[in-house]
Design brief:
FAD/NAD(P)-binding domain; 2 domains; 5-stranded parallel beta sheet; elongated; binds NADP nicotinamide-adenine-dinucleotide phosphate
Amino acid sequence: MPLTVASNSGAPSPSYGGDRTPHGAVVCVLRPEEPADSQGINVETTQEYEVVIVGAGPAGMCAAMYAGRSMLRTVVIERGASGGELLNTELIEDYPGFESIEGWDLAQRFEAHARKFGAEFVQGTVASVRKLDDGSFETLTDDGTRYLSPAVIVTAGGTPVKLNVPGEAEYAGKGVSYCGICDGAFFRNHTIAVIGGGDAATEEADFLTRYADKVYLIHRRDQFRASKLLQKRAFENPKIEVVWNKVVERISGDENGLVNRISLLDTVTSEQSELDVTGVFVFIGFRPNTGVIADHVEHDEMGYIVTDTSMQTSIPGLFAAGDLRAQLVRQVTTAVGDATTAAMAAEKYLTALRDGEAVVIEGHGGYTV
Ligand code: NAP
């Protein structure tokens, strides 16, 4: 039976003949006819892979590991250091097999594991991913590299939500931060504020008391949405003072250009108040980094990418995994689960193309064999 690949684009499948590498993988031969400079980027080099993975967070690195194990020629494109949200988390205590492991340590292990199975990692900022008329994908980076591949897995994660108040942008990096593990040590013996009421805010407030003498945990309602365990830790920490029903209206600084005060508005009484703090750590959620594909892929009202159960998006051959995917929870464990499925589904997709099996166009509902 042919492999059925979801589609609603009507685009033809890429040719997928090609030569085998010494270790047996197929190097696809793709000849896109369209010029690749539609983003205003001068294409200087073109690279060909079987799978391109956008982003090196837990999902990207896990997908790379499985794609590598499937002997697929795989590249992971990441604009910063590998790790994604792991680098914003001091301790991971809910990854099976690791009762407690530092985020950066787990990130390094993920990358080493993916490299062991042959995945390549390159640094670059992806400007666009698009499907060409011949059915292959073109992934453009802003340094002028064009990656061609018959399958792409997007695992670009999310970006912290901003407060959007006066002073936030002005004092970013001068007291305003979105990353406790990156910046906490700058606030040794300081009094700081953490904004938010979810897992990230309560966990980071607790973490930041390692450095700060006092942490105001400021939330816009009178109860947290964080897990009970993280709430308990925050409540029991003598260095944390919870400030209920307050939103930040302004962040102000001193003559040296560093944060020294926040102005608050009470969401119940409308009273205004101020707190003297030298740091403001903002943890009010994040948005999926879907800019490179959002305009041509099905997504929900929050912008998260909708996939079927094989992690395939509304475009055949384009898969999504991790924090940018529409789903109930976003944890390291769910990211790697998504990624495992995405990589294996991509392998099945490529096998069907290579073997010349009919790619039956069906609804956005997954594979049937
Ligand atoms: P989140 O769960 O969406 O919580 C965001 C918090 O910020 C909410 O309390 C929200 O208030 C508040 N907020 C949103 N916009 C605001 C604004 N403009 N001004 C003031 N407050 C605002 O986001 P998160 O804590 O970043 O977590 C994101 C995901 O990562 C979640 O699924 C979480 O479980 C996961 N995570 C897990 C861990 C862990 O398990 N150790 C750690 C970090 C993150 P309301 O409650 O009033 O909406």
